[in-house]
Design goal:
It is built from 7 helices and no strands. Helix 2 packs parallel to helix 7. The longest helix is centred in the first third of the chain and has 36 residues. It is elongated and about 60 Å long. By secondary structure, it is mostly helical.
Amino acid sequence: MNDMRARAVSQFPIVLLTLISIIQALALELLWSKISDSDFLWNFDIKALVGWGMLSVALMGILQIWVMYSTIVIGFTWRPSLRDSVLPFVIGIQQFMMISTISPTFNVMWLYVLASIFLVGNGVAHITYKRARADTNNDLFFKGRDPATFKNFAGPFLIISMLVGLGMLSTVLDDPNWLVLTAIVFANGALAMQIILSRALWAAIMNLEAD
């Protein structure tokens, strides 16, 4: 049993990274197809601006998911569970839904799907880091770092609440252009911030030195 556990810990990260790379490749293919098939993107008007803004979010989301998983796999070891094999498919479906809702007429479901991606993505990261903390192989990273508290999730909860709130307000006001553009700018900023934070985490892992 210990041999099986050791094999899972050593081999599962490779399987997980392969799986997520396939899912992200499919998401990129769907994103490219959306660009190729959407004639409205090539008009100089508000619909094109909103469309390109949504595509920018989708592209940064794909990159962020890849960076998140590759950082976890390369930076930590943890005891995997069956849930670790299932959640990448959930995130993949969410990404496909987000890309599919990009159209000439703004679809408020795009904001709700994006909010759900933030929710699941942060949940995956938290669960994995919690397991990684329990593995002594990661003691060098977690030394001096306190376990996550509710305060650490204030940022993600704020982003999710803002996306849902903007979606509800957009429905009530019948999708005014100024509100749609505000939501698009906020979503791009939130994804850009996530990528910056991931870069800082990667640097922290790469700069670790044993005493």
